[in-house]
Specification:
Elements lengths: L1 E3 L4 E2 H9 L5 H8 L9 H16 L5
Antiparallel strand pairs: 1-2
Helix pairs in contact: 1-2, 1-3
Keywords: 2Fe-2S, Electron transport, Iron, Iron-sulfur, Metal-binding, Transport
Pfam families: Fer2_BFD
GO molecular function, one term: metal ion binding
Length: about 60
């Protein structure tokens, strides 16, 4: 699924950028371009940042 239509950035690309250390909308833009066009994807980018942040707090399944 596309997150950023302006630059054809897919959700998995944004999640990869987050997992590699991009923790802000600006850092995501620097990493993959998402959010640097019209800006309509910024809310979704913030949601993905929060989802990834929450996922990293969960304990690993044994």
């Amino acid at each position: 699924m596309f997150v950023c239509i302006c630059y054809q950035v897919r959700e998995h690309q944004v999640r990869t950028a987050i997992r590699c250390g991009a923790r802000t909308e600006e850092a995501i833009g620097d990493a993959c371009g998402a959010g640097t066009g019209c800006g309509s994807c910024l809310d979704r980018i913030e949601e993905l940042i929060e989802e990834e942040r929450a996922d990293t707090r969960l304990p690993s399944a044994a």
